[in-house]
Amino acid sequence: MTTSLQTAFDRYFLTNSKESLKEYQSVMNQAMETLKSVVLEQTPFSGAKPQLIKKTLQSHFPNVHPDEAMNSELLFQRLKAAVGKHSISVHHPSCAAHLHCPPMVPGLAAEVLISGLNVSMDSWDQSGAATMVEQIMMDGLCRLFGLPEGDGVMTSGGTQSNLMGLMLAREHACMKLWNWDVKKQGLPPEQHRLKILCSDAAHFSVQQSAAVLGLGEDAVVPVKTNHAHKMCMKDLVEKLQEMRTAGEYPFVLFATAGTTDFGAIDPLMEMSRATKKYGLWFHVDAAYGGGLIMTELHKHKLNGIEEADSITVDFHKMFYQPISCGAFLVKERSSFAYMKRHADYLNPEEDDVPNLVGKSLQTTRRFDALKPFLSFQLIGKNEWSDIICRTLYLAKEAYSMLKSDGAFTPVHEPELSTVVFRYTGEGRFSNETEDFLNSRIRDRLLNDGEAVIARTKVNNRVCLKFTLLNPLLKTNHLMHLLQRIKEIGRYESGRLKDEQNRS
Ligand SMILES: *Cc1c(COP(=O)(O)O)cnc(C)c1O
């Protein structure tokens, strides 16, 4: 290899050569500056339409794999103009649509180490210390959630954790009922009689998992929710008895601790009692509400979670970690045996070191555990509690503002940090007009880049939703946002009236 080629290569890989370290520092700085400019921009969104963004990208990057390398300064300038400028800025307080948090700085620092170390969590000989960090992180998390004999593994998020919970529940049930090993034998002959119970407000990943697990979406039996959007126990018991009579095998009760729309927490205690009585696996999807465990003020809302056979926790929601960062916990370590498999080239049975691949659906896997690990070290428990309590308090504040303003009808009293409401103006609109106005308000805020809020349907009527996951949001932000919603509502209803008068 020529010296010049060697020097060039040195710059592309991280080594201990001076050139490499200099290049690393320089490129990382440029990336940081690009990010800073996006954050400093302080608008939730540019409002650009998909087609315009595509055109902008095509003009800045006419060739996806150019023959000649681009100068890095120019590259970052273009990234700033084409990507940074048109990204949803989750750092902005008026970005309040989804369960999508502003990432905290310790998590961002961890990302630098995670990608730079580039260890992989599947086998000990690809990770070393990282495996131990993940394991002690999981042990700590199990203690936090009251599972002293438990175990866990990091996942890509709630979707994967829910799939794992339902999969282990299925394997466990088939073994218990028919001594049937699904891992080896596939689905049992009675497969169409296996049923999953969850509330009608559970996350859509339950249906998705049922499909992936070969049970089909029809295996999911939705239980009614009550006035507070929590699982109705009376309906649950009726459904369980009906299923028994029909010769069906409900095998898992899937609880949600924090539903996507209303942040409702199912009655975990009562549900856990039902699982014992009817011999069901108890899974708790705490993707959203799991953060409450960090607060003295609110953690009682999760009472009963310690009875779960498995739990879903998302760190990229109320734990403010960069995506992706989730965890799956089980009450009994041995539950992971249902999914364990061996590969001679990866984790042979005679290995006496921890190989985490046996607990995961992934093989090559990121060292995401470092994000919560670093964040728990750098932020004390009291401060965690303050951050999460503040996040929940904001929803209470938004709710009381909505309630005292005649132009709005709040749809529920917030339990976590979502607030669902409807713009009703002076109350003289038809339901359809209100639907139209609420949709318009959300679209205009997004298209003007003013705010990103969500739209959802409650009883088939269009509603607006704030998902407040930014503890830095201020009361005056909320006031301003509500003011703007009213202004847009008034303007749009005026336009509508003009149009009707003309026709
Ligand atoms: C977000 C969420 C999920 C899905 O989690 P991902 O991390 O997006 O995969 C599942 N259940 C609930 C209740 C959620 O809030």
From TrEMBL:
Its cofactor is pyridoxal 5'-phosphate. One of its GO terms (cellular component) is cytoplasm. GO terms for biological process: carboxylic acid metabolic process. One of its GO terms (molecular function) is pyridoxal phosphate binding. It holds the Pfam family Pyridoxal_deC. The modification N6-(pyridoxal phosphate)lysine is found at residue 317. Keywords: Decarboxylase, Lyase, Pyridoxal phosphate. Belongs to the group II decarboxylase family. PANTHER family: CYSTEINE SULFINIC ACID DECARBOXYLASE, GLUTAMATE DECARBOXYLASE-RELATED. This is 2,4-diaminobutyrate decarboxylase. It comes from Metabacillus indicus (Bacillus indicus). The lineage of its organism: Bacteria, Bacillati, Bacillota, Bacilli, Bacillales.
